[in-house]
Q: What sequence folds into this?
């Protein structure tokens, strides 16, 4: 029966790159195995060729957070010293490369909220087959070989007015929304698309102030990716019913001009000159 060697190590220590060449410069890893409170980060993020260092660090931080953590711009700016503008730019980078995805949801109260999904391996970084060498840093493709970006998604349809004479008033109202919230700065194309929907509200006896409040109040606190799409949705889903039917007003009573009676010379109203009513009755009763 073989005897155990008490001097043998309990386990084989992993080799540390660079220890075999102590005279060679460069990076040396002094690694210890994690057993708790760690996050696995892919090299496609940690060594991304197109992301800024801030975006890589922010993406790593977000992937380490638990479900339900707040990662809106204000919360991240309160946590890190980089400031709102730099953090917003880093979030846009992560979203552009597929590490973040924003989804708009309607909660039971009717309010629209934004949910942010963190992808630890976006589709562009996933391996097409086992054994494929995809852990190396990606290199940007030549300009001529890049896949064209998808076309912009069309805006939702909006209500159509009966009276097209209100389109100019609707266009002016949309152009003024930027004064209420700078995020509602619309292009000329988006304004032309939304104007019929606003005109449909105006012809239903909704005041411009009420239309403005329905469109611009209670907006999400996060960045609006497609403000025109949000306005189109509100114009359609919150369209008020037509005003109650009101019968046409009765015409005002006819008021004849004053005439002078040719019998008693008293002034009276009549469509044409002649005797007054009393004189007409006396003439009828005379023998």
A:
């Amino acid at each position: 029966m073989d005897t155990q060697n008490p001097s043998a190590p309990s386990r084989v220590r992993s080799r540390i790159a660079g220890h075999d060449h102590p005279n060679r410069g460069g990076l040396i890893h002094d690694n210890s195995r994690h057993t708790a409170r760690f996050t696995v980060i892919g090299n496609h993020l940690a060594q991304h060729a197109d992301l800024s260092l801030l975006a890589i660090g922010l993406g790593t931080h977000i992937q380490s957070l638990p479900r339900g953590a707040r990662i809106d711009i204000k919360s991240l700016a309160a946590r890190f010293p980089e400031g709102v503008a730099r953090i917003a730019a880093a979030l846009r980078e992560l979203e552009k490369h597929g590490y973040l995805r924003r989804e708009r949801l309607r909660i039971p109260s009717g309010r629209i909220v934004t949910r942010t999904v963190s992808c630890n391996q976006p589709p562009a970084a996933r391996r097409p087959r086992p054994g494929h060498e995809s852990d190396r840093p990606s290199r940007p493709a030549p300009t001529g070989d890049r896949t064209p970006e998808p076309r912009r998604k069309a805006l939702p349809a909006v209500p159509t007015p009966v009276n097209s004479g209100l389109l100019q008033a609707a266009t002016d109202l949309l152009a003024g929304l930027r004064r209420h919230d700078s995020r509602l700065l619309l292009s000329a194309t988006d304004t032309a698309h939304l104007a019929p929907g606003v005109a449909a509200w105006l012809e239903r006896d909704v005041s411009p102030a009420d239309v403005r409040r329905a469109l611009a109040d209670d907006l999400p606190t996060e960045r609006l990716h497609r403000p025109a799409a949000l306005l189109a949705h509100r114009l359609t889903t919150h369209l008020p019913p037509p005003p109650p039917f009101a019968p046409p007003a009765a015409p005002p009573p006819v008021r004849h001009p004053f005439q002078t009676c040719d019998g008693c010379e008293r002034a009276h109203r009549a469509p044409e000159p002649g005797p007054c009513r009393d004189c007409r009755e006396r003439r009828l009763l005379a023998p």
Remarks:
- The radius of gyration is 39 Å.
- Residues 164-237 form one domain.
